[in-house]
Amino acid sequence: MGFIDILRPNIEKLRERSDIPGLIRALESPDEEIRDGAMEALLDCMPDALSPLVSAAVGGNGKRRAAANTVLASIGEPAVLPLIGLLEGDDPEVSGFAAVALASVGEPAVSSLVGLFGRIDEEKSERVVETLVAIGPAAIPGLKGGLFSLPYRSRRFVALTLDRLNAGAADETEDAARRIALGQWKELGSLKEPGPLVDAAILLLIDLLSEDYYVPRVNAVRTLGQLGDERALPHLKEAVSDENPNVRAAAAEALGSFEGEEHLPLLLSACVDEDHFVRQSAAASLDRISWHPSDDDERVMYFIATRQWKKAAEIGEAAVLPLIRMLRDTDNGVMKGLTDALRSLERYSVGPLEEALNDPDIRVRNAAGEILVSLGHTDLVYRPLIPKVDEGLPGEKRGL
Q1: Mean pLDDT, the chain, as a whole number?
Q2: Which of 29, 71, 293, 318 has the CB geometry, 3.0–4.6 Å to 298, for a possible disulfide?
């Protein structure tokens, strides 16, 4: 027996002793037979060998990492979660090595990698994209599923990865989903020719209106308005009442793309929305459909939306309550116009302004108080703070 034979790893003895570190070192042997034997022995030592192999894949020298990755690829799915945890970690070097190992595992890692989008930051998401690209065509089916199952903000990375893999869309629905994921709103809105792509886009855009994040709701509403398809109209009507003012403004603007009088009450109501951008959008839509007010109430709504405060005040008493409701607006220009209009309507506005001192919204209470003080009705504002004669001063003991 020569000196080289003495140094040669005895795989059988290492296997019998379950010497996992020794078997991992044997993976670096220049002898292919030893490497293959060490790999088979490590697979026999599962699951005990998994953690040491993962450690070698992210912390050993280059040769050992490559060898460990080869074994992890044979292990498959059980290796994925430990590596995913390291990929999500804060150590960029370890995260990078974990990405390489996951690429070696291949298809079994795809669903977990796609699921990371939305849970990790943009920099790490880019690393996941690179990992999926390294996996190659085997990643495509899992990625395509993510176009429809992931939250909207995660889908962009899925679409970008599919583009990097030169994966064509299987049908019009997938094509529309990828355009939406990439934020190609202008291109979608310009699809004027009816067809399967437009049909798919409309359904996906309507579905996007249920997203928690308001930005895709805004873009979906705008794009549906540009497409002008009647199927979107009921959903756009609902969006006029969205909790987010940006969505409400977009919906009010979108309704101007549809003929008919059925949505006029919604636009008129939006003309007195608490947000001035919503009001402006509603008024612009009314102009686009050549609407004309039928009574003083509608005139007041329109004049408020278009900031024509003097014209609103000229209508008289009917303008007071709608103007007071606008006092919750925070825009300085709006507040000045409202104040001037209500001051000019002092004959009708003092009583309603006094009532507004009890409004649940502190903005309305404060603004109403300031207007009353400016009109000289200080007693109406501060009277509730002045104790009645028979009450005495606060803290004063009676009869003393």
Answers
A1: 90
A2: 293
